[in-house]
Amino acid sequence: MAVRGNDLGKEIQALDAEIAKLRALEHEEDSAVAALREEIEARLGRLSSTQRALADHQEAVERKRSELNENLAEQARQLFEQVLQDRRAAGESVVEAAEILLRRLHDLDTLGEEARNAWEAAQLRANATGNPLDPAAGDELEADPEVMRDSWDRLSHEVRKRIDETFEHELVEAAAQSPMGHAIPNLPEHLRELARQRRLDLARRNDGSRAKTRQRGRTSTSAE
User: Fold this and answer.
1) Global pTM?
2) CA 26, CA 3: separation in Å to the nearest integer?
């Protein structure tokens, strides 16, 4: 029995030693977990701070981007207004030039009539003396002065082109707004695609207007 008691004592000592090791390991692991917990809490704090800073920076970027877009939009609007004003001024100068041209043409016609009368009188006087004038000398009266022909041809071409463009625009606009676009196939081939695109533009514009109207209606209802 004494031998058995000694064995049990040794086993107890061995178990106590193992318990001591386990407690030491437990303390070590507990300390490590505590350190990790502190590190995690610190990292979470830094993460939260970083996220707040990131959100603040993103908000600042969005504000700056919005300001930039507003500035660019304002610059574009001002540029448009300036170009539109310049276009109006150019149109006014064209009107002035057209009025001057019309007066000059009237003067040209008046002088042409006077030249024909003078030519007829000269012919009568020359015939009375028996030395008739060369008929070729009067041929110039039947055409515009040579000096203006090139400029007049270019002006006439430009005016005809603009008249044609205006007429074609009116045709396209009328066909695009015709019921169901039924008039589009009746256009010349080179205008049909323009009319189809114009009809699509009108449809999109109408859809946008209806959407804005519905939005205003919902806003008004919500306010009430």
Assistant:
1) 0.56
2) 34
